[in-house]
DNA sequence: TTTGAAAATTGATACGGTCCAATTTTAATC
DNA sequence: GATTAAAATTGGACCGTATCAATTTTCAAA
C-alpha cells in the first residue's frame, strides 16, 4: 500500500510543502519533477491530481502548480485519513476512550426499503442493531444499523458490543471503504434527549446512509443520531470531476 | 467541455447502464470496451475511475467492473452536477423561485482570522455582506460572507442583491469551482428564529468555509445558517484515494 | 515607453505499451 | 466427487510519447 510510486511522490511533496521548501508557493513544473524524482511524468501527474483533489494544491494550465495557502496553516483539515469508514475510526477524538452500549439486538424480516437498499429478496432477514456510542463514558451517538444475515452469519451480540467493521476486516478479511451518506439536522426527540443528555432545545445531527464492502456489496443501512456538539463534517469540494 | 473522449465514454456508459443494457450488473472488461469504443484502454480507465469515484460502479481486480445497484434505483443522488458552487446553484429546489434580501453591507478591516483565511495583509479591507436567502419568499438561509476588496473592487450593493458568483463569471470571467466546507448543527439563536421563522426548539444547520477561485485564490469566507429542513448534504465517500 | 505578435513555458488529453496481482476458470489428479 | 495445480481473465501501476491549449515571457516595431 505504501510502496506505490505516486504515493511516495505525494508523501515527499507534502513534506516539502510543509517544510516551506517552496517559499514562492509554486511547485516545480511537471517535467522538472519527473526528472528530479526519476519517474515518468504520468506518475507526477497522478500524484498532483490526487493532491489537487484533496485541495492541497491548485493547478493552472500555462501557469504552474500552486500550494493552497490554507494547507500550511491548517494541515489537520486535509487529513481525511483512516483505514475504515466506521464510527470507531471516524471520531478519533484526541485519545478519548470510545465505548459501546448495546440497546437493542434482533433479527427481523427486511422491509421493502431495506430490500431495495441492501439488495435483498423478500424473504431475507436482517439484524437490527441499536447501539449507543460513548466517548469517555459520555453518550454521543445513537446508532441504528441493519445488516443482512446472509452477509454476516456470525454476528452475535458479543461481537456487536465491539466494532463490527473491525470484526469484518480481522475475522473475515473484508473491508468497508465506501459509503453513501446524507447529513442533516433535526430537533431532538424525547429519546435523543434521554440517551444523549440533551435539552429539548438542543438538536441532533443525523448521518444516514449505506456502507459498502470493497466489491460493492451493500453491507449496512445506518442511521446515526449524533449529539450536535460532536457533528462536524469537513469536506473539500471541487467541481472539476477529476 | 463536452467533447472529451473520456467524458463521452462516461455519458454513454451511464446511459447504457440506465437502459439496463448490462442486466448482469457487470460491465464488459476494459480491453473489450477499449476495442468496441475504438479508444485506448487508458481513456476507458479514466472514465471508469471517475465513475467509480462517484459511486456509480465498483471495480474489482481479477473479477470485473460492477454497477452499483443503487444507481439504477436512485440516480438523482449521484448527480452532484452544477456549474458553480454558490447557493444559487446548490439549492435548485424543484423550480422554486430563489430570492435575496440584503440585510447588511459594509466595508471593514480584515480581522486576524480573515487575514489568515483569505491570505490578506494587515491593512486590507473586506466587504461584509449579510443576506437572507429566500425560496418562494420563504427564508431559508442567513448568509454572512467576507470578500476582499482588492479581489472584487466593483462589488456594489446592487450587485450583492443578486448572485455574486454569477456576476464574477459573467462580468469578470472568473469561476468558483472549489470550496472547503464544514457542516454542523446548533440550536437556533434569537435572530435565527426571527429571520428564518423557527421556534426555539428548532435548530439551524451551519455550513461554513472558504470558496476559492479556479487558480486557488481564496475568494470568500462564508457562514450559512440554514433552516434545518433545507439542509441535506449528500456525499459518496471512498477511502481509495483515487 | 507602449503595444502587439511570436516564442517559450506549462499543464491537459490521449495513445499504446509492459509488467504485475487478484480472481476466476479450467484441467488434472487423487 | 473433491482437491489442487495450472492457465486464463481482468483490473492496477507505471512508463514514454505526441499533440494541444492556456498562460507567460520575450522582443521587435511603433
From TrEMBL, chains A, B:
It holds the Pfam family GntR. The keyword Translocase does not apply. PANTHER family: HTH GNTR-TYPE DOMAIN-CONTAINING PROTEIN (PTHR44846:SF4), MANNOSYL-D-GLYCERATE TRANSPORT/METABOLISM SYSTEM REPRESSOR MNGR-RELATED (PTHR44846). Coiled coil: none annotated. This is GntR family transcriptional regulator. Residues 3-70 form the HTH gntR-type domain. It comes from the Bacteria.
